[in-house]
Batch of 3 targets.
Target 1
Amino acid sequence: MKRWFIGLLVLPLAINTAQAASAMDDCILSKIATSDDSVTVGNIRDICRGEIAAEKPAILPDDAAASLTINNQPVDDVPMADEQIDTIETADGSALTRRLVLEKSQSNNPFVFLPHRPNYFIFSNNMASPNLAPFDAADPDGDNSFQPWESKFQISLKLPVARGLFGGRADAFIAYTNRSFWQMFNRDNSAAFRDSNHEPEAWLSFANDSEIFGFKNSLINVGINHHSNGQSGALSRSWNRVFAEAVMEKGNFYFSLRPWWRVPESDSSDDNPDIEKYMGNFDFTSVYKYGDHSFDLMLRNNLRSDNKGAVQLGWSFPLYKNFRGYVQWFNGYGESLIDYDHRTNSIGLGIQFSDWL
């Protein structure tokens, strides 16, 4: 009787452990079949542990993956191809590391685009007065009118073009980001797009594991960035920058510091010679992960006595499956290129399709 009673108590735990091992086996074997050669089994195990824990945390013991064997060998003893390629440590299981490993595992398909910056669609309210000055200058006789309510959306994708450069320490990327401001409720103005900003860029990304004041410097990026609104005449805005970026992480807190240098242009072709005065010389972006919630902050400043810059706060939260709710507040200069020299104060609510991490 006692044995039967103890068996009833132990049976749920045994079932849960078996389910965890089976789920881990299936996940690892599936990802091994589709992952890039530079991804180790240890990387894959960390990804699977995180995925299973997010779905069914109650059935995942800490050592669930320890029992996995392939051909009667412990999983960590199974050789992987091209083990000399430097890989990213995943012992801390951080969100940044998981994203980097997942990107590497997906990049064996040369036609897969990866999320770059957050992708979202939000309804935004400009609490400051709409900036009509550039439109009146371009078309003095036009009926230029804008509503404070509009939609703002961002599409941002990147593509790895080369892996394992400089002895396996660097990867090369290209990316494109579009941010548009659509007067979708403004029927009197034909629901026009008030501004659309285009930002192609290319950079080298160097993996790093040094520490600064307790923060791990995971990546160092160096590249070039073009930023324009595709307009002509008085509405044209554009500039080119060379940038360097350090990506740091500690626990659930991540930040990047990205200073830049503007590529000089001739006076005759410069659409906005004072753009650095308003858009600054650097930006600071940070993300804090709290469970399924994500909080982001962007700061931009010119570091001059005539101080100008911008601040943006965002909060994303679970909504439905792959869709996340997103709240964003922006205050300062340069929310759009047409407003680079006009102060904007806006708040919006919408849907986010991909986060920073």
Target 2
Amino acid sequence: MSAEVIHQVEEALDDEDKEVMLFLCRDVAADVAPPDVRNLLDILSERGKLSDVDLAELLYRVRRIDLIKRILKMDRKAVEDHLTMHPRLVSDYRVLMNEIGECLDNSDVASLIFLLKDHLCRGKMSSKRSFLKLVVELEKQDLLAPDQLDLLEDCLKSIHRIDLKTKIQKFKLSAQGEDAKYTKVLPASLPKLSLTDSAHNLRFQNGKNEEKRITVEQQAIQRVPVKTSIRELAPSQTMVEKRYRMQSKPLGICLIIDCLCSDTKFLQDTFTSLGYKVSHFVCHNAQQIKNTLQEVAWMPQHRDYDSFVCVLVSQGDFHNVFGKDETSSGLPLDQIKRIFMADACPSLLGKPKIFFIQNYLVSQGHHVNSSSLEVDGPSVRVVDSSAQHSNLVHREADFFWSVCRADVFLLKQPSGSRSLYLQNLSQKLRDKKKCPLVDLHIDLNCSMYHWNSKVSEKEKYYVYLQHTLRKELILSSILKPSESPHFFQ
């Protein structure tokens, strides 16, 4: 995050906004006590915890939608979609306390302070203090925490704010089965992931700027059936627990399969600069794509590397790729994933497997027969020591799938040798090397949304995301904390 953006935001916030923002971030920067919002945002930025969407989330929480639009060039719906689908910077507990504070008037707060005077240090809390300052004081004395809400609940009942007492009860119910202190949140389960069911894909809608919030029922329908681990915020956790290890040299193999002889030199340069060993192949049909993927999946070098990246540029339909030859049998997208699952590729067990697929759709009348391209079943050729623990990690875990579909019409345009989706991806990977990949992809979606809002239907790019990542993933080499005092810089 640039200093200029931080300065613009800090200047536009009023005192009440700043108090709320400092409160919301108490867990995110628990080891420091920033005196003001500018220093807080600067610290988060240095630590790699302040992407565009993170700052948008904070501004959304303080109800400054105007700054999201004016400074970050994002709309409300994009932020709400991000909050619905991805781990959040601010904990649900902090959001709850802020929402309760917004519903209390001055007399309510004064009554709460009076009721709690026997618990508070005398002289520390005047009747004119804000509710958020009251919350902070109660937290300091270990009287209030995400799993310790009974005292506040009783006080709200005493001042006849049953509506707010009900809010706390709902929060308690939603936290059942989880560690309410969010210090050791267990990864969520990983149901079967399939790219063939387009109805459940995360499609970034184009050209529609709906301001109303998605209802709970709509969220349940639109959400991808893949649960990811919740971002862990405890300051005592090590970076190994929070993030995927990204320290090997190289970080891994970046396989680029270009079936259309397009311009991918910029991608090779980008992933080389990130620390990957890039391998480039030209494949003309689905069989060649399959053979190349399997050969790379079986490479023993993976056991020494921390990740794997695949970029695929091809023609295809909604569920298959078939290279440049439209008459060949198609290779289903979900079979591509199967080649790199833990049982078929044990060398990548527990490591992130990242796919960026640009698929140019041919006419609806084209049908492919994928029956002849069944992927080989799991093999016992090479099983390293990590495979013995395969029962601890789901075979479909640690995948990141970004699929962009566009009309084949674009290949005939003057700029058709370059995918706009891949260009934007490359630029953002270069500019935001310390940004978590999920957040970076949201930023990528925003760029594609902006493009789609001003072009014809045939020129649009439709981006879909599915992932089963269990930790935060940053696609660049990260040193151990002991190796650099400026770990997040």
Target 3
Amino acid sequence: MTETPVNGHDESQLSLGTAAARNLATTTKTAPQMQEITSRHLLKVLPWIEVVGGAYRVNRRLSYAVGDGRVTFTTTGAAVRVIPAELCELAPLRGFDDTDVLTELAGRFVQREYEAGQVIAESGGPSDEVLLLAHGKVRKLGEGAYGNQAQLGVLADGDHLGEQVLTGDREPWGFTVQAVTACTVLALPRPALEELLEREPSLREHLRERAEGGSRGQNAHGEAEIALTAGHTGEPRLPGTFVDYDLSPREYELSVAQTILRVHTRVADLYNEPMNQTQQQLRLTIEALRERQESELVNNREFGLLHNADLKQRIHTRTGPPTPDDLDDLLATVWKEPSVILAHPRGIAAFARQCNSRGLYPDAVEINGQKAPAWRGVPILPCNKIPVTDKGISSIMVMRTGQQNQGVVGLWRTGLPDEYEPGLSVRFMGINDQAVTSYLVTTYYSAAVLVPDALGLLESVEVG
């Protein structure tokens, strides 16, 4: 009879094998792991404000609408048309509600295509048309203080130029508009506008009132002016004034994220050693709920930060990748005590590549007990909830935080019944006839931008 080799050897086994020994051994186990868990820096850096009553009202000084929004377009094949109602985003047309006239005005825009590097408008040339940027990116170039050429800004999809033509201003262009990428532009020539004004007295009267009104009674931020005097001598009559408030302040209602956790009683009774099954199920459920909470704070169309940044606070990269110059421009949008910069990890890597190519090395600062790169002393933290498109385009945000600083704040409600941790409750819902125990896991949250210059966005960031 031939003996079967053991462990690949011909000799007989002299001791107990490891496979059999494991039957008597205690296995060392980890708690359940979860790849979805991230550092959730946004939830950590936001100061959280207690919201009693479920709503948070942001009272502001009265501001006047200045029509600085972006224009939206529709496309049919290669043909691009401006949506007539969107023309009211131009300051001179704000408040004009004659749909028929706006439709005819929209039909008078002419589509033009420009290649990268082409000049769309020349400095010193006649400003005789309104320009709407339907697609692409352009730069504004002007003469600097010492005769050198300076870049005055970057515009992209939805931006517009030359709106002063609507009010009859004939001043020449004060800067050159040059295409950075291939661009689609809709132009309204002055003759086409004047022809329509001759036939439409309502539009003509509206634009005349806008031209005469100017910015009377407003400060540089569009807020109701507070009359003051300074540097006077003698006994002049001092101006009387008051601070006017916005009569329709915005109210943020708390949003909710909920789920029902189900655990079978047999599992909870028999398989609770060495780890409590209910506690582990609840831990992972709460982690997923917190991840969803941070995603909503970034992307929700009602209160998400990406959608609540003021249009004046949105800028574009000069070339595509996020350069140190772009981050300097971004910090200039929130120049009053910026607290933190948030970017997708791929956005941070793209910025690091630009720094490496220039021989620059960002400083490191300590925040939340760990080291983080910083630019101009402002920490740059990763947030994978900031989306990256399939073309490798993302955004980078900078914010000032805190209610005392008139910054960005998080909103929550603590002291809930059956509160498991601050702002999150776990309520027992009973056991059904299949012996399954149910728990309702709930958290309430939102975010508020107290003043527009507390949040800035760098858009069109190439991270590929």
